[in-house]
Amino acid sequence: MYQTTSYRGHIRNHKALCAELGIDSAHPREEKERALLAAAYEKWGRDAGLHLHGMYAAVLRDEATDTTVLLRDAFGTKTLYYCLLPDGRFLCGTHLKDILDAEGFSKELNERMLQHYLTLSYPGGEETFFEGVKKVLPGHVLTFHDGQITTERYWRPVFQPDNSRSAEDFAEELHETVKTIMEELEGDGDEADSFLSGGVDSSYVLAVSKAKTAHGCGYEFEQLDESVLAAETAKHLGRVFDRRIVQPEEYFAQAPKVMQGMEQPLGDASAVVFSIGCDSVAAAAERGEAARIVYSGEGSDEFFGGYNIYRKAEEYGKRLETFYTGNTNIMKEEEKQELLLRYDKGIRTFDLVRGFYEENRDFDPLHRMCDIDIRLWLDGDIYLNVDRMSDASGLEVRMPLTDLRVFDIASRVPAKYKAEGDHNKLVVRKAAEQVLPREVAYRKKLGFVVPIRYWLADAKYNGSVMEVLRSETAERFFRRKELDRMLDAFLGGYSDLWRKVWAVYAFLEWYRQHF
Length: 515
Fold this sequence. Notes:
The chain is of the alpha/beta class. The chain folds into three domains: 3-153, Aminohydrolase, N-terminal nucleophile (Ntn) domain (Glutamine Phosphoribosylpyrophosphate, subunit 1, domain 1); 167-245 and 291-308 and 333-438, HUPs (Rossmann fold, 3-Layer(aba) Sandwich); 452-514, no CATH class. Helix content is 45%, strand content 13%. A five-stranded antiparallel sheet has the order 1-2-3-7-8. A five-stranded parallel sheet has the order 11-10-9-12-13, sandwiched between helices.
């Protein structure tokens, strides 16, 4: 009989599952969900994740058979790690610290990951930055029994477009599905707020929710400040908007905390702003002015074709198989070879997605790109950021658009309703138009932008970053001459280099925090 020994997450369809699996729905939420996870695995085994809608990472244990099972949701919204020590002991947990702090574990840097990271700007794939520690991939179940590790996949993204239906048909199906999901999320009466940017996804989530307050971050930098648009949306919906203005000084002061709490390096500059936003909401919750549960709109872009780069899918065609590792590409192999002290020619970042392309060869080019981003980018960057920073602040972020039922709809939407024509993500926009003004539903995507390229080049603010980049720690990994050349070019006016500069800094700051 399995018991859930470690768990983080939220099972949103718990009421239906309780009735089906014979679990007392009157139990406190976490106790009930732990029982559901164990009962679901007892009944469905590997395929339990196909029945569990929500966000979760869980460790199950059957003492009678001395078997441990690790179960992670289809999209990887919660982290889950494991390690087999030389003495045969199996370590696992939903945080890396569960393993790093264990007796007998020897912490060593996995420097192979640095080569992948400098292209992706996040920890992609199964390995971690700690030697010997791996993560359970999204949509996978891992079993440890009799000294052996077995992994099985229960889900992967499969796109089968249905050209017989209109965009309006899909939009109506999506809207009804999202309303059902929100009913599940709000069915327990938990008080919740919502994060809000200027984009359609977070605006749509707020509109279909009962959240009374929305939270957003902005800057004293009008060209990149979405919070003004978010305030207008909140006003239209009759919700309170908490606008947090982020200053450059606090941004750079927050960065070390982010690299500490992330557990692995992440070169996504928006993570620092998200961390500040989470801390702000948590502080307000302490004062009784905000909720600790917050809705957010992640998942829609990757499912429904929201990124501008997807518009080039047909142009790329078969060439995708030669270069596309996701919508981030910070450094090419030649650049890494010049910059790194120890470059291994046998490690190629494209190897992380080679198997994906073998599996998705029957998809059209757009959906091949979506497949890569769902399986690599969402797991390694977006969900890692949301999970780790909200966890560090004591918040619970729920993402209603990240759901197998939403993906099921997206999997049937043809490319022509995603990233072709005047508007990307057309089905989402048509669904949102039912509850939002047209100008909000069809607002062009700006993204969670940060004025980092300007702040990072300003000597008034960048002192702490430059100190790290010019430290002895940097010389352990990078060629001093090449790194200085990159810094001098960036500070000299080549602002497009900011992503490379920030990625290197983020790794070095993370290393200083953990080693």
